[in-house]
Design a protein that fits this description.
The complex is a heterodimer of chains A (129) and B (107).
Chain A (H helix, E strand, L loop, with lengths): L2 E5 L3 E2 L5 E8 L3 H4 L2 E7 L6 E7 L4 E3 L7 E6 L4 E6 L8 E7 L6 H7 L5 E2 L3 E5 L2
Parallel strand pairs in A: 2-11
Antiparallel strand pairs in A: 1-3, 3-8, 4-5, 4-9, 5-6, 7-8, 9-10, 9-11
Chain B lengths: L3 E4 L2 E4 L5 E7 L7 E6 L6 E5 L3 E2 L7 E6 L2 E6 L9 E6 L6 E2 L3 E5 L1
Parallel strand pairs in B: 2-11
Antiparallel strand pairs in B: 1-3, 3-8, 4-5, 4-9, 5-6, 7-8, 9-10, 9-11
The chains are: A mainly beta (129), B mainly beta (107).
C-alpha cells in the first residue's frame, strides 16, 4: 500500500527558498503514478494546487507562483521534491504531496487523471523572520 | 483560470438526513471533476472522480452527478463520520483549481 510522507523545515525566512521532500513508501515511485503533485493550504483556507510532475518528464506549475517553483523526481531515493524560492508570508501553509495511485488502466487514467487519491499527512511551513 | 464555486458555504444537516452539495465551474470542465472530504488536521480524501465514479473504498451513500459546469455531491444518509469540509476540484484545464469548500455540520 503506497504511502507518502512530506519532510522539510517548518520555518523559512522571507526571501529564502522553501524545500520539501515527499518520500514514497510501499512501492517504487516510478510505478506509483503517472504524476506527482504538490498542493498547499494556508491556515484556515482552501486548497491550492502548486504544481505537478508527469511521468513523461513534463512539469506544470500554478501560474500564480510564476517562476518561483520547481518540482523534481529522484527515483534513486523514491522521492519527489518541491522548491519554492523568494518566499513571503503568503507562502505560509500546510504543504501536501499527492499522487493518483489506484489507477492501473488507461481507461482509469482517462477518467481520473488530474485527481489525487493518495496524500501525505501534510507539513506546516511558516515563513517568518 | 477556471473558477470553482461551491454552495452553500455551510450546510447544517441532521444525522441520517440527505445532504446535497453543489459545485459550479466558470466554464465547462466536461466530467473532469473530483470531490474530496477533509476533516480537521487531516489530508483531503478523494471521494469521487470523473464527476460520478466513486474512488476505491468510498461508501455507496456518496454519489456524484453533473457535467459541464454544474455538479452535485449527494450523501444519502449522513453518518457521524461524514461531518467535514468538502471540496470540488476541476482537472480539465491547468491550473488545477479547487472550490472554496462546503462545511457539513451537525444540525
Amino acid at each position: 500500500q503506497l504511502q507518502l510522507q512530506e519532510s522539510g523545515p517548518g520555518l523559512v525566512k522571507p526571501s529564502e527558498t522553501l524545500s520539501l521532500t515527499c518520500t514514497v513508501s510501499g512501492g517504487s515511485i516510478s510505478s506509483s503514478s503517472n504524476y506527482w503533485g504538490w498542493i498547499r493550504q494556508p491556515p484556515g483556507k482552501g486548497l491550492e494546487w502548486v504544481g505537478s510532475l508527469y511521468y513523461s518528464g513534463s512539469t506544470y506549475y500554478n501560474s500564480s507562483l510564476k517562476s518561483r517553483v520547481t518540482i523534481s523526481l529522484d527515483t534513486s531515493k523514491n522521492q519527489f521534491s518541491l522548491k519554492l524560492n523568494s518566499v513571503t508570508a503568503a507562502d505560509t501553509a500546510v504543504y501536501y504531496c499527492a499522487i493518483l495511485g489506484h489507477c492501473s488502466s488507461a481507461s482509469c487514467y482517462a477518467l481520473a487523471s488530474g485527481a489525487f487519491d493518495i496524500w501525505g499527512q501534510g507539513t506546516m511551513v511558516i515563513v517568518s523572520s | 483560470e477556471i473558477v470553482m464555486t461551491q454552495s452553500p458555504a455551510t450546510l447544517s444537516v441532521s444525522p441520517g438526513d440527505r445532504a446535497t452539495l453543489s459545485c459550479r465551474a466558470s466554464q465547462s470542465v466536461s466530467s473532469n471533476l473530483a470531490w474530496y472530504q477533509q476533516k480537521p488536521g487531516q489530508a483531503p480524501r478523494l471521494l469521487m472522480y470523473g464527476a460520478s465514479t466513486r474512488a476505491p473504498g468510498i461508501p455507496a451513500r456518496f454519489s456524484g452527478s453533473g457535467s459541464g459546469t454544474e455538479f452535485t455531491l449527494t450523501i444519502s444518509s449522513l453518518q457521524s463520520e461524514d461531518f467535514a469540509v468538502y471540496y470540488c476540484q476541476q482537472y480539465s484545464n491547468r491550473p488545477l483549481t479547487f472550490g472554496q469548500g462546503t462545511k457539513v455540520e451537525i444540525k
